[in-house]
Every structure is written in structure tokens, then in C-alpha cells.
Specification:
The chain is of the alpha+beta class. The chain has eight helices and 34 strands. It is elongated, with a radius of gyration of 34 Å. The model is unreliable at about 1-30, about 515-605, about 615-625 and about 645-648 (pLDDT under 50). It comes from Bremerella cremea. InterPro entries: Dockerin_dom_sf, EF_Hand_1_Ca_BS, EF_hand_dom.
Length: about 650
């Protein structure tokens, strides 16, 4: 334990000359405030989590403190006595070692131990240190010994490290009360108490800041010569820089304001919302229902407090990992037409059902008077629902809730240009009615519309329902029998998989309860030109635009099919997949749902065409020999059925 000063000597025994102005520098000013002839500069900078410099932070909000270091040889006013024989050069080559402590007002700020210390991206440390943080207002032994193996020895200023702080008590914390670096051998000063053992002495605080004292004598020599905790430069004769006129320190002052909030709203949609310059005059409606394979967007909207605009947002979305899965975050790079914020952070924890996403923009006119669309988070359903008519018509299953659990924003004042971190509101979450995919009925409902489903369809083809739940599964048009219209629905959805974001075509009214008689009871087909209920399509923003070549059965048949087919989905039938399999947003045009089913079927030349259609949308490269044999046998059964006109 180092001997402490007497309490009567209240000020730090280090004769540091803080020549900085008390207050806040303009946003554009980045140069050091009062450096003169020092060889090294170490300055701190406060930023939001995406790196925007800030002057204010709301109580309870997190922010970063970044340390920048620079070899100042070659700068005006910096004198170097060049001695090439002893490897002392006048040009900057960068730092080799940098160790320091930080003090701050313990009432205003708190060190966030969960974040720890992150080294700059270009730093190659010999060993990373664990800082000492057991004393309020003090972070001990920050820094690294840097071995630069890239050949770039940092001749200019470089980010050394960063750590995260949390704003506490509101107030103005100027340069001396703010967050400040010191030499590593400037150690904590304790208040002597003759009635206590030295290890029980209290730290000497002034205005909430722990005071320091400089080691002297043998202790100083041990800290600077026999240890590594000092400053040094490449090509500077292996000299240890330990004097105040050799190292320039610059701290940071901040205002901690009372809690203030940005207004966050969230909408859950299947189709991306269009904006005007990144903003909307009104918020879209939430989706009410989806099918079990749907992908959907969590759209995050934000509006800054009055007099500010919103330049950064960080949100955490929580979901039940059994029901949903994170796919990707969508920002300006993915949709430059409607989004003005870029994604700079996306940390997903699918095991626990959480994703934190950060969005940032250079624009300073968003979210001031209208809601800005900050970004989209794409999720997909993992729910598995059975197509079971045993107890009557299908019913939906209510999903778990998806919600924002944490939000924060960085705003810029439109009058003062001050940048501040503020809290964000967390609107109530939403759940959805989820319906089964009608066409996935075989193989334990394997989340693929494939050959196994086709084989089961063959067995039911030509039958009437008559209360049989197994036949009812294949009566896709809900007309009481399994026929050509049902087959046309099946073909248009054949090859689809839960692993790929795609469009499914359903009978008008589904997803939804079909127990109410449909409007057109006299026909299983739509009349030409009749609009299709929007619920008949599980609408998705990423349709498939390519059509595979048909399998030729004969010249006449194949020509007819080629001319009359709707655009069929050609998707992977594999039930496994990842977000990297997804097509990009807005990469194509969805199948036209207004083409009537009866017109579609009527254009088929003969029954062989239907078999050709099914085989054309099946990727046989993914099929086993057994599956191909099953498909061929099933096709023969359908053709045999069609030979008997009474069964159609």
C-alpha cells in the first residue's frame, strides 16, 4: 500500500496543468485542444455506440469512451534531437507501449464491466490487460504493448481502445470532473487515518473524482524501468516517456441530462413499407395473420424529441425461439430507395430469442417532424402446424409475442448541433394468428411441398370428401371433391419450402376460417376478371421470378403447357437452410394472383400436361432414386384415373 497524503492537502499532488477550456468543443473540432511540444498525445472522446461524437447523454444511457494515441514527431512545435546511430528518428513511426489510468466523477458515470475494454481494430497487443475497476471513479492499468506485424506502424493518430460507460446523476461534468487519462504510475491517493490500518484507508475524492499521487524514488524506478507500464515510440532509442512534457493527455467533459426519450414505434408487415425520403406520414397496419412458413419484417420507426433529429437507433427485438428465427437486418444498403439508415450492428441470440440491431445515418433531417423508418429486421416463422380436419375446419394457432425490449437513440439538436444519447420508448408487443400451409401434408409435414405430398394427392384424387378428413386435406378449393382445380393449386405451390422466402397461392379466404360457405358455391373456380381476396396469397416481398423448363411429354403437349403456365415457383425443396439462401429484396415480381383457376386449367391440352407441370417444378437433383420412382408411379396412377372419364 502506498503511503497517502494528509487529508489537509486536498488537491492532487501531480502538478498537472489542465489548460483546457471548461466546456464543450464544437462538433466539427477534432484536433487536440492545447497540445504543444509533447512527443505523444493520448486523448479521449465520448461517442454513441456507433461512433458519433456526443456532448450530452441522458441519465441511464450507455456511451463509449474511445482513447486515441498519436506519435507527434513531425508536427509543428515538436522538437526531436535526431540520432540515427542510436535509432532516434525525427519522423513518426507510431507507438510501441501505452499504459495509463483513467479517473472520472463517480457520481456522474459508471464503468460498464459487461462490455470490458475493446482494443482498436489495428492494434496487435502482446497481451490484453484486465483493468482494475474496484474503486469508484477509477480505471487502472489500461493500455497495451503494440507489436505491429503489418508494416504500418501507425504514423498518424489511431484508436487505441474503447470502454463503455453509463450516465448516472444529471449535471455538467467539465474537463476536470469528466473522464481523464493519467500516467500509469500516478496511483490512488488515500486519506491517512491513524486509527486504521493503511489497507483500510479511504480513497481521497474531490468533487467525486478520486485523487492521484505520483510514485517517487525506487517505486517510480520500478514502475518505469523494471516494468512495462509506460509510453514509448518505435525508433526513439528505446526511451521510456514518463515526463509531462513528453506525453499530452486530453480528457472529455459531458453533460448528463435528465431522462429524455425518443418515440419508437414498431410495425409487423409481410411487405416492406414505402417511404418518402426515409419518412412516413402515417404508420402502416400490423399484420393479423400469416401461414406457418411466412417471413415477416419488424419495421422500426423513430421520432426524436422536439427540436432534434434522429441520427442513430439501437433496438433489441425479443421473440420466442421456438416460434421465430432471426434472418437478417435490412438497411440502406439493401433498400436505398426507402431507407436512409445503414446497419452497423446485428447481434443475434437465436437460442434465447433476441437480436440487437444498430442503425446509423449521416442525414440530420430525419425523424424531426415525422416518423423515420430506421430499419427492418426480418424474422421467419418456425411454427409447425398440422393440416388436420378431424374436428372440423382448420383453425389458427396464436403465436407468442414479438416485441421491442430495449431502445436508445442518438439525436442532434437542430439549433445547437449538440449530439446526445437519449432513451427510447418500448411499445407493446404483438402476436399473430398462424395457419398451416395447406399443401404440406405428407412425411409428417416436413415443411416441403414435394413428391411425398404429390403421392398422397394421387390417392385422394377423384374422391369426394363426405366427411373424410384425409380426403378433405386435398380439397384445396373447398368444393367437396378432389379434382383438377385442386391439382392446379398444388402445382402452383409445388417445390416450395419453409427454408426459402416465397409466395404461396391459396383459395380466396385462406388463411382464414373456411367453415363459412364461400361466396361462389356454384363453382370451384373464379370467374374471369373477378378480384382475388388478398388472403388467398401469403404475400411476400421476395418472390421467385424464374421458371424452369418443362419436361416434354410430346410436341403438342409441351407447346401448350409452355404457352399457358403461370409463373411457377422454382425453390429448393430442402427443409434446411439459412439466411444466405434468401434472394435479395425486391428481386422479382410475384405470381399474378388474378389469373383465374378455371382459365388456367382450361388451357391445359391434356392430362399429360399436368404431370409435366409437376415434374418441371421438381428439382430432381435433390431427389433420391426412391423418390423419383415414387413420382413416376404416382404419375402413372393419375393418368390411369384420368382415363376413366366418370372419375373426373
Amino acid at each position: 500500500m502506498k503511503k497517502a497524503r494528509s487529508r489537509t492537502n486536498l488537491r492532487n499532488s501531480i502538478s498537472r496543468n489542465w489548460k483546457h477550456q471548461v466546456g464543450f468543443e464544437a462538433l466539427e473540432v477534432r484536433e487536440m485542444l492545447d497540445a504543444s511540444g509533447e512527443l505523444i498525445s493520448l486523448r479521449l472522446e465520448a461517442t454513441d455506440l456507433s461512433g458519433n461524437r456526443i456532448q450530452q447523454v441522458a441519465q441511464g444511457e450507455s456511451f463509449l469512451v474511445k482513447a486515441y494515441i498519436e506519435d507527434r514527431r513531425g508536427d509543428a512545435g515538436v522538437t526531436v534531437n535526431v540520432d540515427t546511430a542510436n535509432d532516434i528518428l525525427g519522423n513518426p513511426w507510431g507507438f510501441f507501449t501505452a499504459y495509463f489510468n483513467v479517473t472520472y466523477d463517480s457520481a456522474g458515470f459508471d464503468f460498464d464491466e459487461s462490455y470490458g475494454v475493446h482494443l482498436g481494430s489495428t492494434i496487435n497487443p502482446v497481451a490484453a490487460n484486465t483493468p482494475a475497476t474496484d474503486v469508484d471513479g477509477y480505471i487502472g492499468r489500461l493500455g497495451v504493448q503494440n507489436i505491429d506485424i503489418s508494416g504500418n506502424l501507425h504514423p498518424t493518430e489511431v484508436e487505441l481502445l474503447s470502454f463503455r460507460m453509463i450516465a448516472q446523476q444529471p449535471g455538467t461534468y467539465n474537463m476536470e470532473e469528466g473522464i481523464n487519462p493519467h500516467f500509469h504510475f500516478d496511483v490512488l491517493d488515500y486519506v491517512e487515518n491513524p486509527n486504521q490500518l493503511p489497507e483500510d484507508w479511504a480513497v481521497n475524492y474531490v468533487d467525486g473524482v478520486p485523487q492521484l499521487q505520483r510514485l517517487t524514488g525506487d517505486e517510480f524506478v520500478a514502475a518505469t524501468e523494471d516494468a512495462d507500464e509506460y509510453f514509448s515510440l518505435y525508433h526513439y532509442g528505446q526511451q521510456r516517456l514518463t515526463a509531462e512534457n513528453q506525453v499530452y493527455f486530453e480528457g472529455v467533459g459531458l453533460q448528463v441530462t435528465a431522462a429524455n426519450t425518443a418515440d419508437f414505434e414498431v410495425r409487423y408487415v409481410l411487405d416492406p413499407t414505402l417511404t418518402t425520403g426515409g419518412e412516413v406520414s402515417s404508420l402502416p397496419e400490423n399484420l393479423d395473420y400469416m401461414d406457418e412458413w411466412d417471413f415477416f419484417y419488424v419495421e422500426v420507426y423513430g421520432k426524436a424529441p422536439a427540436g432534434n433529429s434522429l441520427i442513430n437507433g439501437v433496438v433489441t427485438v425479443d421473440y420466442n425461439a421456438n416460434d421465430f428465427e432471426f434472418v437478417k437486418a435490412v438497411g440502406r444498403n439493401e433498400d436505398p430507395t426507402n431507407l436512409r439508415y445503414s446497419v452497423y450492428l446485428a447481434e443475434a441470440d437465436d437460442d434465447n430469442g433476441s437480436v440487437t440491431v444498430g442503425f446509423n445515418t449521416l442525414a440530420t433531417n430525419l425523424g424531426d417532424d415525422q416518423y423515420a423508418l430506421i430499419g427492418r429486421i426480418l424474422l421467419r416463422s418456425k411454427m409447425e402446424l398440422s393440416v388436420d380436419y378431424t374436428n372440423g375446419e382448420l383453425q389458427s394457432t396464436r403465436s407468442s409475442v414479438v416485441s421491442l425490449s430495449d431502445t436508445s437513440a442518438t439525436v442532434i439538436n437542430k439549433t445547437t448541433d449538440f449530439v446526445a444519447i437519449v432513451d427510447g420508448t418500448t411499445p407493446t408487443g404483438v402476436s399473430f394468428d398462424v395457419w398451416p400451409v395447406l399443401y404440406d401434408v405428407a412425411n409428417g409435414e416436413d415443411r416441403v411441398v414435394g413428391l411425398a405430398d404429390f403421392a398422397d394427392f394421387v390417392i385422394a384424387f377423384g374422391k369426394t370428401v363426405n366427411g373424410d378428413p384425409e380426403v378433405r386435406k386435398f380439397d384445396f378449393d373447398d368444393n367437396g371433391s378432389v379434382g383438377l382445380s385442386d391439382f392446379s393449386y398444388f402445382v402452383q405451390n409445388f417445390g416450395q419450402s419453409a427454408a426459402v422466402n416465397s409466395t404461396r397461392i391459396y383459395l380466396p379466404g385462406y388463411p382464414g376460417d373456411l367453415s363459412t360457405p364461400p361466396a361462389l358455391m356454384g363453382s370451384s373456380f373464379l370467374l374471369e376478371g373477378e378480384p382475388v381476396d388478398s388472403r388467398s396469397i401469403s404475400s411476400q416481398p421476395v418472390p421467385v421470378a424464374e421458371t424452369s423448363q418443362l419436361v416434354t411429354t410430346n410436341a403438342t403437349s409441351s407447346e401448350t403447357v409452355t404457352q399457358s403456365l403461370l409463373i411457377l415457383p422454382v425453390t429448393s425443396t430442402s427443409s434446411t437452410g439459412s439466411s444466405t439462401q434468401l434472394p435479395e429484396e425486391n428481386s422479382g415480381t410475384a405470381t399474378d394472383p388474378t389469373t383465374s383457376t378455371d382459365t388456367y386449367v382450361a388451357k391445359l391440352d391434356d392430362q399429360d400436361d399436368l404431370i409435366a407441370m409437376t415434374s418441371s417444378s421438381w428439382d430432381d437433383s435433390l431427389a433420391s432414386e426412391d423418390e423419383e420412382t415414387s413420382f413416376a408411379n404416382s404419375a402413372d396412377e393419375v393418368l390411369a384415373l384420368w382415363e376413366d372419364e366418370d372419375q373426373l
